[in-house]
Hints:
Blueprint: H1 3-28, H2 57-63, H3 65-76, E1 79-84, E2 87-92, H4 99-103, E3 109-110, H5 119-122, H6 132-145, H7 148-166, E4 172-176, H8 177-194, H9 196-201, H10 203-215, H11 219-223, H12 230-256, H13 263-268, H14 280-310, H15 313-334, H16 346-350, H17 353-365, E5 371-376, E6 380-383, E7 389-392, E8 397-401, H18 402-405, H19 432-435, H20 458-475, E9 476-480, E10 500-505
Amino acid sequence: MDVTSITNSWFVVALVFIITVAAKVARSRTLPGAKKTIKTAPPSPPEAKGAPLVGVLPAVLSRGLQAVIREQHRELGSVFTLRSLGLAVTFLIGPESSDHFFHAAESEIAVDDVYKVTVPIFGRGVGYDVDLDTRNEQHRFFAKTLRPAKLRVHAHPMVHEVEEYFGKWGECGVVDMKHEVDHLLMLIASRCLLGKEVRENMFDEVSSLLHELIGGLQLISMFFPYLPTPAHRRRDRARARLEEIFSQIATARKSSGRVEEDMLQELMDSRYGDGRATTDAEVTGLLLALLFAGQHTSSTVTVWTALSLLTHPEHLRVAVAEQERLVEEHLEHNHHGSGDGAVVDYGVLQQMDFLHRCIKEAMRLHPVSQMILRRARRGFTVRAKDGGEYSVPAGRMLASPLVVNNLLPYVYKDPHIFNPDRFATGRMEDNAGAVAGAGAGDLAYLAFGAGKHACMGEGYAYQQIKVILSHLLRNFELKLESPFPEPENMLSMRPKGKVMVTYKRRKLFCNT
């Protein structure tokens, strides 16, 4: 077994132990009414065969988690259970079996246990440190900051940051696309989320603090998040300093009466249902939650989309042609081609239909995470694709594996092929679940989740990814020099290693 295999194996072991701990917590917190006896209950989901105690762990270590899930799906159907080290996880595959998982009330299906590890990062009083009612109100704050009217405001500064960044590239060169995208997205975030004070005066310090904060999320953090390790101490110092920075910015704005059009200002101005204003600590935590979710998703998806286009020249040509057409139409309509943001604005971004489908297809083939986890607070009955019904007990850990759901051949034709046209009008394969009578048309495509916990930042993510990729398509000829990468490991689906790309500036358009 080589070093890469050993590393991946340890990530699998880590995942198993993490879920085991969560499951034990879940069982201890099951609602009182959950053990009520059902007179005639369907059978339990079929279980994969495995060795005593360790269960399927040897198979996962030798063949990989994705392979094991796919094997059991073929053998046992769309609902089945994997056991290992005393833990049982029931997998729900396909839109037919996923309705309760995504649409049930929080009292039925919970997410809080899975994300408790984020509390030391985001801080007390936000996210999964608060009760459901408070968390719902904070989600309302997010929804307000991410509505289309606000996205329109953010389009110009996004375009400005992208033009300025790529304007510093030479006529030709070689870059690591992962590094370039990560840095650029941090610049965009500092402008649109964190405030121009951060972008203009303390970008380097805040970037360093965020790096320390992320570095505090390690394997030991899953079990002992408050253990005074060096990484945790750096995390806590970074979190305290970030709160100090944003408190100073908020105080300065309030004292001067200055109001900015960024998400920091939106969260500062937010009010709970009882009229209470958000505290500086809450604003910091909510900002960090937005930043973490947005940066990871957008960075991963931007690079995978670029990789997919560079390895499929037929689709790359269509994407470039779309850019040429839209820019020409926009310039003709406005009778000019100069000025910041004149070529690409919010309206033009919304018309990038083929690029949108390319991004969507890249996320289907390369999801940001392998699976979505939940916990059953109460027992429920699930219907499998073949019509059979099974009883899932209270306290059971549940998984919706995107790496399988996204490749179902009865939903997606030739599911392993990159084909953005599968989402074109008139075809729309992601609605096949409803067409096939599954009755859950929103559950065939799950890149941004679905139901009560669907990602509210979908529009923001698409917008900033389009701004970056559309600029590259218009202004550069790109060629992938590295081999097409595998995902990093069993927990992260980012492209592994450096993604080396050669670029050559071209003059297809003016002032783009």
